[in-house]
Specification:
Layout: H1 8-11, E1 39-44, H2 50-55, E2 68-72, E3 76-88, E4 95-103, E5 113-116, H3 126-129, E6 133-134, E7 138-152, E8 161-166, E9 182-183, E10 190-191, E11 193-194, E12 217-222, E13 224-225, H4 234-248, E14 258-260, E15 266-268, E16 290-295, H5 306-322, E17 330-333, E18 336-339, E19 341-343, H6 355-358, H7 361-372, E20 375-382, E21 385-387, E22 393-400, E23 402-411, E24 415-425, E25 428-434, E26 450-460, E27 470-477
Parallel strand pairs: 7-13, 11-15, 12-16, 12-19, 14-16, 21-27
Antiparallel strand pairs: 1-8, 2-7, 3-6, 3-7, 3-8, 4-5, 4-7, 9-10, 14-15, 17-18, 20-22, 22-25, 23-24, 23-26, 26-27
Helix pairs in contact: 5-7
């Protein structure tokens, strides 16, 4: 029997329904979004119930490791829940689980769903120190029962548990957005992304401040479980995933940077601002070099809807454009040369984001590249530090589309010491050299020691809209015969 009690309404005799006892539910009558605390139970998986193992249906051969069963439960009665997942102590990834759930409305048990071990924060990070191992979250219909089977080639993980999460409801859940539009933001329009407040994130459970890394690419994910969710159920599902990641897995926040539902609506995931290079917990080993976007649903069993794919493409175009990354190119990510837009399976041992969504990645790369139109890729200066009077530094950048570019070198005290412009057409490389002097040409005085900001800006020549700009710094260091620093 389950260590949890079933909800009181199910345990009362039918005769009690006619009694004088009146239960008054607490109803949220406000349509304004507000934090909705989730309710979660953790149920220990103590070992293998051999009777249940023999009586349960066979698990699907697809995804099965063939390892021995190290955990098996009976059919457990639980609180109502919408999200579930299996967790354990430590960071083992040699564990997989199969889960069945009971529909709270019909009492019917589902077939087994396969849950892979899902990596989290990067090893060695402060967030990883408090994390538990675990599976990807399972999205279910409203359920009140669960059965779990766990397999591994090694011994049963310590503190093996299954978490069930009731994300709660709000009248605002059905009022949040519809098909997203776009707001102008540079050449690539920024898609509408619904905020954490809109899906009712309980900010009181979030831990720590956002950490910034570097965006070199994007990792596409999917969740596990049902695809048959309604629009008004999406905010609750997000709250369930959030609670599982924070309270079940021990992470600081929801692992994904952004999520997208099957209607193409985009939802802000990890806090810290979508414009910033916020480090997530979606793909261990590359979190600090990528952002993660997760498609809500199982796309190993179903085709990803076109609206979903289109808006993944639109968000990837905008996000990578802001960080000067070509979505159709390749880069060194996690120490390996990879596409800048990859599925989770390319950076971890997983089938995520499912065979059907993974097959669309080529289209997403090409479409995102086209949507970026004019762009700057991989801007950098070399050298970034130079001794006074020793020469200059060069800015190199890849350009795409039709660009009228401008490169300025400026100092807080001297003002602009170099200002150059030009045009570029097609996918080409541009090099702009600063000679390390206070004016253009070889006749200007050497720029004194200090910090000089490099500003790369520009417009799409045909559309007349701004390309996302870039800033860097060149430091002129003092020598034995150098003058006083610029801002002395």
């Amino acid at each position: 029997m389950s260590p949890l009690r079933r909800p009181l309404a199910r345990l009362l005799p039918a005769a009690l329904a006619a009694s004088l006892i009146t239960v008054i539910p607490v109803v949220d009558t406000s349509a304004a979004p507000k934090p909705v605390p989730a309710q979660r139970d953790s149920i220990a998986i103590s070992g293998v119930d051999t009777t249940a193992l023999k009586a349960a249906p066979s698990v699907p051969s697809s995804g099965r490791s063939g390892d021995r069963v190290v955990g098996m439960t009976t059919q457990l009665d639980t609180r109502d829940f919408r999200v579930a997942g299996v967790t354990w102590r430590g960071d083992r990834t040699d564990v997989e689980a199969f889960v069945r759930t009971r529909d709270a409305r019909t009492g019917t048990w589902t077939d087994w769903s396969f849950l892979e071990a899902e990596g989290g924060p990067d090893a060695g990070s402060a967030e990883a120190a408090a994390a538990r191992g675990g599976t990807q979250p399972l999205i279910t219909a409203a359920s009140d029962g669960i059965q779990v089977r766990v397999e591994s080639a090694r011994a049963k993980p310590a503190e093996l548990e299954v978490d069930v999460v009731d994300p709660g409801t709000s009248d605002a859940d059905g009022d949040v957005g519809s098909t997203p539009g776009a707001t102008a933001d540079g050449v690539q329009a920024k898609p509408t992304v619904h905020s954490r407040a809109e899906w009712g994130a309980d900010e009181s459970i979030r831990k720590g401040d956002p950490v910034h890394g570097e965006v070199r690419g994007a990792v596409v994910h999917h969740t596990a479980g049902i695809n048959a969710y309604s629009q008004e159920e999406v905010p609750g599902i997000l709250r369930g995933i959030y609670d599982f990641h924070v309270n079940g897995r021990g992470w600081n926040d929801i692992g994904y940077n952004v999520l997208v539902d099957k209607w193409g609506r985009l939802w802000e995931g990890r806090a810290g601002g979508l414009e910033n290079p916020v480090v997530g917990a979606h793909a261990r080993g590359v979190n600090d070099e990528t952002f993660g976007i997760s498609a809500m649903g199982n796309y190993d069993t179903a085709t990803a809807p076109d609206a979903m794919v289109t808006n993944i493409e639109r968000f990837v175009a905008w996000k990578l454009g802001r960080h000067h990354v070509d979505p159709s190119a390749a880069a060194t990510i996690g120490g390996h040369w990879r596409h800048t837009v990859v599925g989770h399976r390319s950076v971890g041992q997983t089938v995520c984001p499912g065979r059907y969504l993974n097959a669309r990645l080529r289209d997403i790369r090409a479409g995102a590249k086209e949507r970026q139109s004019s762009a700057y890729y991989r801007p950098s200066t070399n050298p970034t530090t130079l001794p006074y009077g020793s020469g200059g530094s060069a800015l190199t950048v890849g350009t795409a589309g039709n660009v009228t570019w401008r490169v300025r070198i400026k100092n807080d005290c001297l003002g602009v010491v170099s200002d150059r412009t030009g045009t570029r057409s097609g996918d080409t490389d541009l090099t702009v050299t600063w000679r390390g002097r206070q004016s253009e040409g070889s006749w200007g005085a050497w720029a004194p020691p200090g910090e000089y900001e490099v500003v790369l800006s520009g417009k799409d020549t045909q559309k007349g809209v701004w390309v996302p700009s870039w800033r860097g710094t060149i430091t002129v260091t003092p020598t034995a015969d150098s003058p006083a620093p610029a801002c002395a």
